[in-house]
Amino acid sequence: MSKQKKTTIKDIANVLNITPSAVSKALNNHPRISQKTRDAVIQVAKNLNYQPNRLASALRKGKSNLVGVIIPRTNSIFFSNVVQHMEEVLNLSGYNVIMTQSNESYTKECTNIEALLDTQVDGIIASLANETTNFESYNKIINNGVPLIMFDRSDYEIDADYIGIDDVRSSQLIVNHLITQGCKRIAHIAGYSHTRIYKNRIKGYIDSLEQHQMEINEELILESNLSLNDGREKMQQLLQLEERPDAVYAAGDYAALGALQILKEHNIKVPEEIAVVGFSNEPFTALTSPSITTINQHSEQIGKLAAKAFIQRMDEQNSDSNVTNIILEPELIIRESSKRI
Amino acid sequence: MSKQKKTTIKDIANVLNITPSAVSKALNNHPRISQKTRDAVIQVAKNLNYQPNRLASALRKGKSNLVGVIIPRTNSIFFSNVVQHMEEVLNLSGYNVIMTQSNESYTKECTNIEALLDTQVDGIIASLANETTNFESYNKIINNGVPLIMFDRSDYEIDADYIGIDDVRSSQLIVNHLITQGCKRIAHIAGYSHTRIYKNRIKGYIDSLEQHQMEINEELILESNLSLNDGREKMQQLLQLEERPDAVYAAGDYAALGALQILKEHNIKVPEEIAVVGFSNEPFTALTSPSITTINQHSEQIGKLAAKAFIQRMDEQNSDSNVTNIILEPELIIRESSKRI
DNA sequence: CTGAAAGCGCTAACAA
DNA sequence: TTGTTAGCGCTTTCAG
User: Fold this and answer.
1) Inter-helix orientation angle A136-143/A106-118, to 10°
2) I need a labelling partner for A55 at 20 to 30 A (CA). Which of A276, A285, B137, B218 fits?
């Protein structure tokens, strides 16, 4: 049973004594075919358990109906939600998703791009790996005439559509909130500033402090990879300062959790002595005690909008239209870890 | 720049005044070609920015190097880890992954299977949707001669390779542990018993109680969809019994969390008054207070083994070889929610 | 070692 | 309305 030859439109044509092209038309609801033939074809197709070969069709039409997606990691609820909603929208328009992950590695990212282009995807939707500072392979996608949509992590050097939240604004929301809560010495466990979103978060942090005529203190800004362990280390470092901070804003939830752990281990009261804020609304932030204040990045919307941006690119004829830039308003979710009043 | 024609082996052939077939051989390290030609071809290919067209190659060779993956949900760390490690192994062997999700829906699952078969994937790796009780479409995959590997959720009616953990044993580990902790009335918030893994978890639960000459009480076994909300509801129900349980084993972590929330809301001490155990080792189980005892399902191993099983199927000539069945030993992770002594 | 030629399965001009 | 024909880009016999 396992090696039966697959039935093709040719087989169907033979049975009915018509030509393959007639069968093709019948199967694709082409107008120039009689209802009678169409019905007959569909009947025979069913009988022979016909399975269209999208590869052949793709080759012929020069369109694979495959969309490549590159995300840094799957084990982050943000990215996996984004992909989930992207898929939803894309499937509705007849696209399948090829998902790849870079594991935050630049080389893996390049390999993935190569592989996706080889597979003749109709477009690529991506978010940068942490490591990436060279954007040639992304520009190669564009130069190949393949639509590219970036989300969350991108760079000004990549001339593609972009969907993300306003990171400067996110930081401002957080810092303003902390100031309202009476915090006077706010530390920032930042991401690496070579990445645009983290640079923007640092900028928002600084802007907000300046607006309130508060001092910018270099020793309170620590760049990190935002892992749980890095959060722990940086928090340790902050505790060893002459003058402790009274609030810590980490640019990622895992780092915030690490900080929280250290504070608990040192019996430092959160938020009374030191307030903690994270970023991304990972599910665990609602479940820790105290629960962690964080930013909702709108993964669902980002996924859907990115998919729609791609579909629009495919639909439009004039591929020279301007690049779309959708910046969503972040939402501050205030929880116990920062509520002092 | 965006509409440049893609370079093909024909273009390369023209430049060098040789035939496409020679170029093909050179590019594929075919032995019957001179080193000189090979070098020249590779040089020109680089100059013209040649990108092989895998679709054409796939059509010709009858092999797409695409593997379809069907998972019920992406927002579960178990499934997303599995996919991640699957991808790792598959990429190494030159395969790309097309990821689809059923959202626990039977219809979506069928659509996904159709789409994947149409795309001419070389194989499918899948885990059943909760809803699924009809396995025709899976058997269709097999009948089409496409290798099928199931993991975690499968059924005896699907005659495919399988990788999963020993669910009966998992329940036994849990129930034995609870008994050791002095629990005498152990409730089970179960999954729907039409699904094999949940049936097995129920079986393990019953077996273990019988082994200890403890009573099997129907009112303590509640089937559910294992969502957080269902966990809350079932826990409510259990609290309304004449005689309360002193332990609750939920067949999923989210349900366990729901139960924990209800217990907290009622100021019932965990684990002193009622112990709680979950299943799957979702990251949040380590972070709640009390942290939740649970089962490690070995997502990494499952992903890798499933990928390897597929690769083996592809490599072997005699496709009639027996079905592989890999059952991994579960690991009980004991945390605060069940530690009474 | 290289070339000629056929064809994977499907689609789209064009012709009838 | 249907058929003929050519070809998407690549691989693979088979001849030379």
Assistant:
1) 10
2) B137
**Rounded-to-10 torsion of CA B215, B219, B225, B227:** -90
Q: Name the residues in B17-36 having a C-beta closer than 7 Å to nucleic acid strand D.
A: 20-21, 24-25, 27-28
| 3-class secondary-structure state, position B254 | helix
CA B337/CA B253 separation, integer angstroms = 12
pLDDT in tens, B245-262: 999 999 999 999 999 999
> In whole angstroms, how far apart are CA B48 and each of A142, A144, B10, B41, B42?
16, 12, 12, 10, 10
Residue type, B116: L
Q: Is the pLDDT of residue B89 over 50?
A: yes
Nearest to B117 by CA among A88, A43, A26, A49: A49
The per-residue DSSP string of B268-313 comes to --TTTTSEEE-SS--GGGGTSSSPPBEEE--HHHHHHHHHHHHHHH
Strand D within 7 A of A32 CB = yes
Mean pLDDT confidence for B260-283: 95
In chain A, which residue's Cα lies nearest the Cα of B50? A118
Cα(A151)–Cα(A141) distance, integer angstroms? 15
CB A310 within 8 A of CB A316: no
Q: Mean of the pLDDT values across residues B61-81?
A: 91
Cis peptide bond upstream of A330, omega within 30? no
Cα within 13 Å of Cα(A339), Cβ side: 11
The tens digit of pLDDT for each residue in B226-242 reads 999 999 999 999 999 99
User: Closest residue by Cα to the C1' atom of nucleotide D6?
Assistant: A60
Cα separation values, A341 from A214, A226, A264, Å: 21, 28, 21
Side-chain half-sphere exposure of B130, counting CA atoms within 13 A = 13
